[in-house]
Specification:
Chain A: It comes from Ammonicoccus fulvus. The complex is a heterodimer of chains A (668) and B (249). Chain A has 668 residues and is an alpha+beta fold. Chain A is built from 16 helices and 21 strands. A 5-stranded mixed beta sheet of chain B has the order 2-1-5-3-4. Chain B has a two-stranded antiparallel sheet with strand order 6-7. Classes of the chains: A alpha+beta (668), B alpha+beta (249).
Chain lengths: 668, 249
């Protein structure tokens, strides 16, 4: 690794615009001191209650004078904007979509967990915390997980009240089902479209506030930079995607709820427009970026099957409740799956993890699938998938019951593959999915830039190194409706009586100019390749070098490749068109430019963390039986990265677990 | 597969627009309609042209962002399937396709195949929501909802807000979209309380921005969520219920 200085374009706002083109290969160093997560001390069970009581309040008469910017209208963003608007704050809410309902939360299928513990299957608040911390391989902040569990109880009540029609038992009570990594039934759901129903309900609640005049909603408007003045976040720069108008907005606080960056892999389960630009630009302005290499690979994605394929389609993990996963015993078995007799099938999850079987957590299931595929037992035309077989479930329960449980997923599978999953097994493969990394934030969800808050998948705290199924909708909803509406006012309280930053302030105009210059640079670049071509290639590099499993060799290779690609991007990207109209090539170009920078940090984070934990599986760090080997002596911490003129600098937040003792994850 | 495409090109809202002819020689049966457009755009970019602007996001049929008109049919030839889930293998021996935006007076064209569907959200703003303040909800288990009601609510709630129903309607009505919302909210405990006001507000907004419903049923044939025609009836029924209540705002 070279030690040459790494040139950074995120200079402080008063320096001239720097060239975003890379000049030297990246390197990194480790900072002195430790990061403080600011979690309450004392009894963890009363921590959130005490913190809420300690928060400063804002007199209702003062609230309309305080402006909060919320970026993103997914479950976290719509919830935060609606709740803060309802409280009386002046909320400016931004989304690049044409309607808030289209945020990617809409595509989550399986369900939302809640520690309600109503059934007699042994669930409880404590067990939720244990499952979540263990599932995340002890790389989450315990205090945050406890708060998540506590609020999960009333978040279901709220979502049901604003219109989400949760599945019900015949007697009228809420129905639940089980998910990976958990042996109890605590997942509330709405067929295979839970995310859609929660998202639509949340965006309706947001539009209700728009109608009441408490939230100004700006659709088709993308955040392209953060304005930092006096050491705190005071606004954002946006581009109107229809007119190209670039504008500065001042505010007392900024909330980023812009989702995860799994789409950095190109083929991911995320929507094709999901991106990292808002969080990455905030990072470049000083917000620490935590655990970028912790990316979950979803075990039940559909395999990539054609050259032009634009993304990887996700099938809900709930399918693992009734579908059995297997591969043929014999590598290269060409027979039709229905012709392979029982003794020649390997139900490898049941064999390796008898206690959890099909319900092992996602990282374990993904890794096990990859192991089978690498060993040559993969199935399908490209030998890159495993079978998910409903034959037994169909025989046992009948087609009607299966259709009621998973009908829309079966239809989707048939659309995508042209195969009928009622007649032959589905084929599934691990696909890049949820990102556990994101902007680092403290217990109050404030990033390392004062006044900049983060919610949902854009942040990092809850999931550790692996997210349990059905915890993402929960964390987004809890952040939006029941955490940020307490912690953001606490910050606003000290700003009562001050005006928001003027859009004419020097920090704003300099940032504005930088965004304009960057757009012009992209549009005017005399290149020949579309941004998407770079994105595809970046994805291939990351899957190979920083995918389901990583090694020092694969990561070192990826660092070089990402670097070369980034150089090539700025030399040869072609955008075309004009900056003064709807220009999707330009949108893609700046997103890919940011993905290239982020990918660099992802790979460095994976290289730096010399252990295996959760979704971060370093081949060098495994137990003799091949299971991931955590190193708590050296890595019981969150890596939170800073970009400086001298390269990336790692800050560490030590983690401690008071309620749940450290243990080796064993799902056997 | 060789496919000849006639694609609608329009530089901006003020531009008259025109069809442009293109040929994709290497289309494959497993391609989705949108992947065909991706491929076309690569081809256009290779010769220095401006790629066709079109919308899509989740590409799984959930977000409702995509929606183009194929040979006159919103979303394309496979009934009740969104554009992103239309695959060439299902089109038969097709060699030509004419692709244009969702057409409706309520959806002005922004550029090429991208239209402005904010009129749908204005219907929701008018009343397509439940009035409940954050933190005040009772225990969700204390309000019993029968499985049948929950499932029926879900049938209506499945709408993805793509607007194909409006584009398919000869009158440009949004009754399927609005009715699905009214029916869904009328079936759940909290939504029931204000259903008369909601129906009135939503009905008024429909009249302001969309055409009248003549029960053609064209909407149902294209709806990717399979919303039943009874949603249309819900608009009338819910408004009628509202008539019986005193008018107060």
């Amino acid at each position: 690794m070279t030690t040459e200085a790494y040139r950074d374009e995120a200079d402080d706002a008063t320096t001239p615009v720097a060239d975003p083109r890379p000049t030297a290969a990246p390197h990194w160093s480790v900072a002195d001191g430790v990061l403080d997560g600011n979690a309450p001390t004392g009894d963890p069970h009363t921590a959130w209650d005490r913190r809420r009581t300690d928060y400063r309040l804002v007199n209702p008469a003062n609230r309309p004078k305080l402006t909060v910017i919320v970026v993103g209208t997914g479950l976290a963003g719509a919830g935060a904007a609606a709740a803060l608007g309802e409280l009386g704050y002046n909320v400016e809410c931004f989304t690049f979509h044409d309607a808030p309902r289209r945020a990617h939360s809409v595509a989550a299928q399986g369900g939302i967990n809640a520690a309600r513990g109503r059934k007699v299957d042994g669930d409880s608040l404590s067990r939720f915390v244990i499952d979540t911390l263990k599932g995340g391989d002890f790389r989450a902040r315990e205090a945050d997980v406890l708060r998540l569990a506590e609020e999960s109880v009333r978040v279901i009540d709220h979502l049901q009240a604003i219109g989400a029609p949760f599945a019900r038992e015949y007697g009228g009570q809420l129905a639940t089902r089980s998910f990976g990594g958990v042996q109890v039934s605590r997942t509330y759901y709405t067929r295979g479209q839970t995310g859609q129903q929660l998202q639509v309900a949340a965006s309706q609640a947001l539009l209700r506030q728009v109608a009441r005049g408490t939230v100004n909603l700006h659709t088709r408007t993308e955040m392209l930079d953060l304005i930092v003045a006096d050491g705190r976040a005071q606004g954002i720069i946006t581009r109107d995607l229809v007119t190209g108008h670039v504008q500065a907005w001042g505010a007392h606080a900024v909330v980023l709820a812009t989702g995860g960056y799994g789409s950095v892999f190109f083929h991911s389960t995320l929507a094709v427009n999901s991106n990292a630009t808002a969080t990455w630009r905030a990072h470049r302005r000083g917000a620490l970026f935590a655990s970028p290499s912790f990316v979950q690979f979803h075990p039940t994605a559909l395999p990539v099957s054609s050259r032009w394929q634009s993304k990887t389609v996700l099938m809900s993990e709930s399918l693992r409740n009734d579908g059995w996963i297997w591969v043929p015993m014999t590598p290269g078995d060409e027979r039709h799956p229905n012709d392979i007799p029982e003794p020649e099938r390997d139900y490898y999850l049941e064999r390796r993890y008898p206690a959890y079987g099909n319900l092992t957590p996602r990282d374990i299931a993904s890794r096990a699938a990859r192991a089978e595929i690498v060993a040559g037992r993969g199935v399908g035309p490209l030998k890159n998938s495993v079978y998910l077989d409903f034959r037994d479930a169909l025989n046992r329960l009948g087609r009607t019951v299966i259709a009621a449980r998973y009908g829309n997923l079966f239809d989707m599978y048939r659309d995508v593959t042209g195969e009928d999953p009622y007649r032959q097994p589905m084929r599934i493969a691990p696909g890049a999915h949820f990102t556990m990394g994101g902007l680092w934030s403290d217990y109050d969800q404030m990033t390392s830039i004062p006044g900049l808050f983060v919610g949902g998948e854009a942040g990092n705290n809850y999931h550790g190194a692996n997210r349990l199924g059905a915890n993402s909708l929960l964390s987004a909803c809890v952040d939006g409706w029941f955490t940020l509406p307490y912690s953001v006012p606490n910050w606003l309280a000290v700003l009562v009586g001050t005006p928001p930053l003027s859009p004419d302030a020097p920090e704003a105009t300099v940032a504005l100019e930088q965004v304009r210059r960057r757009s012009e640079q992209l549009i005017g670049n005399p290149g020949s390749q579309r941004p998407t071509q770079f994105h595809r290639r970046l994805g291939e590099i990351l899957y190979a070098g920083c995918g389901v499993s990583r090694s020092e060799a694969s990561l070192r290779r990826a660092v070089e490749q990402v670097w070369d690609l980034r150089v090539e991007f700025w030399a040869d990207v072609r955008v075309g068109g004009s900056g003064a109209q709807l220009n999707q090539e330009l949108e893609r170009a700046w997103r890919v430019a940011d993905f290239l920078e982020l990918a660099e940090l992802m790979v460095i984070d994976a290289l730096d963390r010399t252990e295996s934990c959760g979704a971060h599986f370093r081949e060098e760090y495994a137990w003799p039986d091949g299971e991931a080997r955590r190193n708590d002596d050296d890595w019981l911490s969150v890596s939170a990265w800073e970009s400086t003129a001298d390269g990336f600098v790692r800050h560490s937040e030590p983690l401690d677990f008071g309620l749940v003792p450290l243990q080796v994850r064993d799902y056997r | 597969m060789r496919i000849e495409l006639e694609i609608w090109r329009q530089d901006g809202p003020g531009d008259q627009g025109r069809f442009e002819r293109h040929v994709v020689d290497d289309a494959t049966p497993e391609m989705s309609l949108l992947e065909l457009l991706d491929r076309l755009n690569d081809q256009i970019a290779e010769v220095g042209g401006a790629p066709v602007q079109f919308e899509s996001d989740c590409r799984e049929g959930a977000c409702g962002a995509c929606g183009v008109t194929v040979d006159g049919v919103p979303h394309g030839p496979v009934a009740n399937t969104p554009s992103c889930r239309q695959h060439l293998r299902a089109f038969g021996a097709v060699t030509t396709l004419r692709i244009e935006p969702l057409r409706s007076a309520a959806f002005p064209v922004i550029r090429d195949l991208v239209v402005d569907r904010r009129s749908l959200d204005r219907v929701i703003e008018a009343g397509g929501h439940v009035d409940i303040a954050t933190g005040t909800a009772p225990d969700a288990d204390s309000l019993l909802v029968t499985t049948d009601d929950a499932e029926l609510a879900l049938d209506f709630a499945a709408c993805i807000g793509c607007g194909a129903c409006v584009a398919a309607c000869p009158n440009g009505a949004a009754h399927l979209f609005a009715g699905a919302k009214l029916a869904h909210l009328a079936l759940i405990p909290h939504g029931k309380l204000e259903r008369d006001r909601r129906a009135r507000a939503v009905g008024e907004r429909l009249e302001e921005e969309f055409g009248p419903c003549s029960s053609y049923g064209a909407c149902v044939e294209v709806c990717p969520a399979g919303i039943p025609l009874s949603a249309v009836a819900a608009v009338h029924r819910e408004r009628l219920l509202g008539v019986l209540k005193p008018k107060r705002r």
